[in-house]
Write a structure and sequence with these properties.
- By secondary structure, the protein is of the alpha/beta class.
- The protein has a domain at 47-232 and 324-460: Phosphoglycerate mutase-like (Rossmann fold, 3-Layer(aba) Sandwich).
- The N and C termini lie far apart (56 Å).
- Strand 4 and strand 5 form a beta hairpin.
- It contains 15 helices and ten strands.
- Helix 6 packs across helix 11 and helix 7 packs antiparallel against helix 10 (302-322).
- It is a single-pass type II membrane protein.
- It is found in: Golgi apparatus membrane.
- It comes from Rhinopithecus roxellana.
Length: 464
């Protein structure tokens, strides 16, 4: 047993027992704080391991649960890419050695990994929207390149896809066996890690799919705002939020001391180390169980990591309180939410295209959507996080439709701002679809204050 594993077992972070139903006794998929089972003070290493989302036991999930007289009409899936190599390196240290080729019998293992590799190698002629057609379909470097998806990242999304297949295809028959290309809507940013994550999920969902039926659209913006990206007020919220982050960091003397110690170890100015965003690289070491780097001046260690991660957690807490990020999120998430309800509305009219939509995205995509929906307590999006919108029809009243929102398999519908009061007002077991429509078309602007009633006015209002 290596030192890191021993440390984690010591603080009860790696589950060592399994409940009768096969689910680990310390669930890794919980997203809302649980006062009974979680450490009373947020443990930075515990939070980091939740973020890693190391594939282990199969998850239980609440996707696809509804009263028997409800019929599933459409599903809209937002994912964060899976585990990746860091985007930054700690200056003057050796890069963590992680192999980004896919090896079927290496951990983490997935029974479909070998077939996935084979299927991807047949897709070299796939026609995707430019510039996606120039990207590799799966990771393939013996030493990972910066930001490249790892085998862990592929396995995470093969698992996601298989889980959604069991629920939405086998149980609910969302797509017919002879599904057509226009019944899928697939969109990704122009990074190899998001395209490859989308393909891994899709392969788990539709094994051995026909390449001719698969078309990924390219989304240039991480906010998935398509033609509605120009929004000056959103950018002002973001600038104020970044200023808040900067001031909080200045107040944290322990953080400054830690950066100073680490800068001495790697022999660079403190400012340069901070700019290199060491937490990104350190998380990679932690998730892949690779020792933190050492130099002749000493070693970066777990105490350094804990200080930086604890500050991150404190920053998230203050971010919720100050509400600047909420303003950014309401404007940042509006275009993609508006597009999603448009698809849902077409489905309520009986249209049969785009029944399954997949957006392969980033943490900076999911975070604003979660915040805009009022899910402020949700954890920072882990690797391979999934946020799902389900649209249901009441068979007994075919004109009535309902929505469910799920985050990492947890039903968070009644935590959202548009449906948290639903039970007080209605005996209906599901959240009415019109609640979500009203929220996107009107209430998102009301929440911003001011008199704006549409996206353009809210983005251009004076005197903010």
């Amino acid at each position: 047993m290596d030192v890191l594993t021993a440390l984690l077992l010591l603080v009860h972070l790696i589950p060592v027992s399994t409940a009768k139903n096969g689910v680990s006794s310390k669930s890794r998929k919980r997203i809302m704080p649980d006062p009974v089972t979680e450490p009373p003070v947020t443990d930075p290493v515990y939070e980091a391991l939740l973020y890693c989302n190391i594939p282990s036991v199969a998850e239980r999930s609440m996707e696809g649960h509804a009263p028997h007289h409800f019929k599933l009409v459409s599903v809209h899936v937002f994912i964060r890419h899976g585990d990746r190599y860091p985007l930054y390196v700690i200056p003057k240290t050796k890069r963590p050695e992680i192999d980004c080729t896919l090896v079927a019998n290496r951990k983490p293992y997935h029974p479909k990994l070998e077939a996935f590799i084979s299927h991807m190698s047949k897709g070299s002629g796939a026609s995707f929207e430019s510039p996606l057609n120039s990207l590799p379909l799966y990771p393939n470097h013996p030493l990972c390149e910066m930001g490249e998806l790892t085998q862990t990242g592929v396995v995470q999304h093969l698992q996601n896809g298989q889980l959604l297949r069991d629920i939405y295809l086998k149980k609910h028959k969302l797509l017919p066996n002879d599904w057509s290309a226009d019944q899928l809507y697939l969109e990704t940013t122009g990074k190899s890690r998001t395209l490859q994550s989308g393909l891994a999920l899709l392969y788990g969902f539709l094994p051995d799919f026909d390449w001719k039926k698969i078309y990924f659209r390219h989304q240039p913006s991480a906010l998935f705002c398509s033609g509605s990206c120009y929004c000056p007020v959103r950018n002002q919220y973001l600038e104020k939020e970044q200023r808040r982050q900067y001031l909080l960091r200045l107040k944290n003397s322990q953080l400054e001391k830690t950066y100073g110690e680490m800068a001495k170890i790697v022999d660079v100015p403190t400012k340069q180390l901070r700019a290199a965003n060491p937490i990104d690289s350190m998380l990679c070491h932690l998730c892949h169980n690779v020792s933190f780097p050492c130099t002749r001046n000493g070693c970066v260690d777990m105490e350094h990591f804990k200080v930086i991660k604890t500050h991150q957690i404190e920053d998230e807490r203050e971010r919720r309180e100050k509400k600047l990020y909420l303003g950014y999120s309401l404007l940042g998430a509006h275009p993609i939410l508006n597009q999603t309800i448009g698809r849902m509305q077409r489905a309520t009219e009986g249209r049969k295209e785009e029944l399954f939509a997949l957006y392969s995205a980033h943490d900076v995509t999911l975070s604003p959507v979660l915040s805009a929906l009022g899910l402020s307590e949700a954890r920072f999006p882990r690797f391979a996080a999934r946020l799902i919108f389900e649209l249901w029809q009441d068979r007994e009243k075919p004109n009535e439709h309902s929505v469910r929102i799920l985050y990492n398999g947890v039903d968070v519908t009644f935590h959202t701002s548009f449906c948290q009061d639903h039970h007080k007002r209605s005996p209906k077991p599901m959240c009415p679809f019109e609640n979500l429509v009203r929220f996107v078309k009107r209430d998102m602007f009301v929440a911003l204050g001011g008199s704006s009633t549409n996206y353009y006015d809210a983005c251009h209002r004076e005197g903010f």
